[in-house]
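During the reporting period the student researcher (J.K.) took over the structure-prediction task from the postdoctoral fellow and processed the backlog of single-chain submissions. One of the processed entries is reproduced below for the supervisory committee.
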Amino acid sequence: MSKKILYPLLVFALAVLAAIILLFTRPQLAADTTQRVLSNVRVMNVTAGNEYLQIKSQGTVQPRTESQLISEVSGPVVELSAAMVSGGSFTAGELLLRIDPVDYEAAVSRRKAALDRAAVELEHAMDELHRFEKLQSQKLASQSQLDDVRRSSRVAKANYDEATIDLESAERDLQRTAIYAPFSGRVREEHVDVGQFVSRGGDIGTIYATDYVEIRLPVASSQLRYLDLSLDEQGQLLPERTVNVTITGTYGDVEFSWVGKIVRTEAEIDARTRMLYGVAMVENRPDDSQPPLLVGLYVNASIQGREVQNVVRLPRSAMRDDSQVLVVAEDNRLHFRKVEVLRIEHDEVVIQEGLESGERVCLSPLQAVVDGMEVNPVIASEKG
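J.K. obtained the following structure tokens:
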């Protein structure tokens, strides 16, 4: 056999032999069991309970009572209270302004003199009447004479009554020269000064009370069903039907809160905004812990709505399509659950039906979910 054939055969035989040796001497690999990895999901234990719904609103603080001071007499201003400046504070019964009373004092004196004269004339007329009645009974005076005396007595009585009324009117005008505060409060505007002549009916200024303030709060028509308030209860509410409201406002960087009540509602829904307006009244009694509610302050309000029974609050992120949530059963498997949503409040939803206390609801935003899928639940929080 030639070398050209022998050498290739020899190389091939050596290669086969090496392959056989490698095949029988290869290491044996141990079988590896594949373990399934479960998805971690955040869950929360829910607790059903009773609570009052809250309706949010906003408004501007307004005075409960605001009055325009009008002069009822004419004359120059001779005295003006230091409180009669814009923002000035006063108490009930405090003198705010005095108009020169000299002319009105003189008018009272003249009316008193006229009344005294009318009283004398009336006394004389009544004496004459009694005298002629006696004479007529004795047939010593005619009936016509008695009638004339009676007319004279009635005229004297009318003159006396007129003089009395004139004196009372003059005394009232004299009293009106001094203007006193009808309540405790502040001055919004003042339009007079000492020495200025004011006419009857002239505008002196505007004042408002500070013992109570009011906030006009709009409530959307869609939110009315959450209020414990019947639509036929328009106007002033009975004391037992008033609704609690919490007012919050900010002075600087500090937030304060006040408690008040919805005391009345307006009689119609605004056609432009579809809002019903309720009026909250807050007692404005400042103390060391908080300042007073200043007129003009923009505030937020939380109105106490009706009480609901056996409801659960969840984050909005827990909701799935078609009002569903994912409930983690005791065997750690996910199941879709249809629930009835009572209300959506910003980042939370109030569930009325479909969940029970102690159940676990999935909060994680899972992309692909299969009903019955097993998961690894991690408690996020407890919510009632």
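The committee noted the following: The chain has four domains: 42-50+309-383, 55-63+211-308, 69-100+177-210, 104-175.
J.K. will present the remaining backlog at the next meeting.
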